[in-house]
Amino acid sequence: MKLTVKRRFLGSKYTIGSMFIEGSYFCDTLEDVTRDLNKDGDLDDVGEGKIYGETSIPYGTYDVIVNVSPKFKRELPRLLNVKHFDGVLIHRGNTPADTAGCILVGENKQVGRVINSTFYETELVKRCKNALANGEKITITIE
Question: Measured between alpha carbons, how far is residue 60 from residues 29, 83, 110, 111, 133 in Å?
Fold first, then answer.
């Protein structure tokens, strides 16, 4: 199963994107500030760098699994091998304060926020678990 996040608004306090599943629009996303300015998948370049809890993951493609989050105590999609990051999840939340480097799912109907995120988290987890049960590999591409 292929997930894609197309970032469409790179603000000074947050990033808004659209998530697609197998090329079909699924929902909006909210992330921290995008600091991978040259979109090369690395935050080591001049003028970039990670600020803990305030930086979105670098552009690129990552493998995804579903496992129980120690923090949230429920099954969530987890991105693997994200340079400079540990424990990147896709989950519910509403504001940039809820992200801490993770990807929030929902509807961007309010400036700088997503709403109805519980529905989209639940549906995404269900689809990911079904894909894994069918032997599919899950990847996410951030563009």
Answer: 16, 10, 27, 26, 25
Two tokens, residue 94: 């509403």
Q: CB neighbours (10 Å) of residue 57?
A: 26
| Amino acid (one-letter) located at 129 | K
* 8 A C-beta contact, residue 92 and residue 71: no
Q: What are the sequence ranges of the domains in the chain?
A: 2-142
Instruction: Write the pLDDT tens digit of every residue in 104-123.
Output: 999 999 999 999 999 999 99
What percent of the chain is predicted at pLDDT more than 90?
90
Strand partners of residue 9: 16
Q: What HEC string does the chain produce?
A: CEEEEEEEEECCCCEEEEEEECCEEEEEEEECECCCCCCCCCCCCCCCCCCCCCECCCCEEEEEEEEECCCCCCEEEEECCCCCCCCCEEECCCCHHHCCCCEEEEEEEECCEEECHHHHHHHHHHHHHHHHHCCCCEEEEEC
Please indicate, yes or no, whether the overall pTM of this predicted structure exceeds 0.90: yes
